[in-house]
Design goal:
mainly alpha; 226 residues; two-stranded parallel ribbon
Length: 226
């Protein structure tokens, strides 16, 4: 169990360090400026102003992972079965998580009070930078926690290996769709996978494109921006 905690925490530290370095290079040295989705440049001072809330949220996120693995692992972690089943576990949890996120995110925009008091913090970024994926009111990302765990419980638990891969896919994808940089060609060939352009349009226009990982939720519920 202690090893599991170390692996999960180390992974989250590494992923978020990547997000910080990416945001630093984008704002300080204008990395990939020729591949930006929007023409507006975000200042290095903006990057610095985002760091306190970002750091607080990451530290609390890591603490929640420690508590979750230590006290509740029996409810969502089980033994590894096989690689094909691991793929099923990961895809299923991503699917349920994103469906939960879609309605949570859409609700935060439709409820003007919640938008003003909570979600508006995240939308200070009309042109996002990588670390802004978790530049949010703490109650916002905490309210999204039930999503993946609902998926894990429905499927009868997932292996710890599946959990780590889920963390990588979910968090790295969030960093990339908030990067403000055009999606890679590889990214675009995965069917219905949320591109950087899809989420960047949400930040620019705000009304629509509520899904994160799978864009078919916006197609299904008719909230895709044109």
């Amino acid at each position: 169990m202690n090893q599991h905690i170390i692996y999960a925490c180390g992974l989250l530290v590494g992923i978020n360090l990547y997000g910080v370095i990416y945001a630093f290079l984008v704002t300080k040295y204008k990395l990939l400026n020729n591949k930006k989705i929007q023409t507006r440049n975000i200042s290095y001072e903006t990057f610095l102003s985002r760091l306190p809330l970002f750091t607080f949220n990451v530290l609390v996120l890591i603490l929640f992972n420690v508590i979750g693995i230590y006290f509740f692992r029996e409810y969502f972690i089980r033994d590894f079965i096989s690689v094909p089943w691991m793929i099923v576990e990961i895809l299923f949890v991503l699917l349920i998580d994103d469906l939960f996120f879609y309605f949570l995110h859409r609700g935060m925009h439709q409820n003007k009070y919640i938008y003003k008091k909570i979600h508006k913090i995240h939308h200070r970024a009309n042109t996002p930078i990588p670390l802004e994926y978790i530049y949010v009111h703490p109650l916002e990302w905490m309210s999204g926690i039930p999503g993946p765990f609902l998926g894990m419980v429905i499927i009868g638990g997932i292996s710890f290996e599946s959990y780590l891969i889920y963390l990588i896919i979910r968090n790295v994808h969030e960093i990339h769709i908030h990067s403000g940089v055009k999606s890679s060609k590889l990214h675009k060939i995965i069917p219905f996978y949320g591109t950087n352009e899809h989420h960047d349009a949400h930040h620019a226009k705000r009304d629509g494109n509520y899904a994160s990982t799978f864009v078919f939720w916006d197609l299904l519920f008719k909230t895709r921006l044109k």
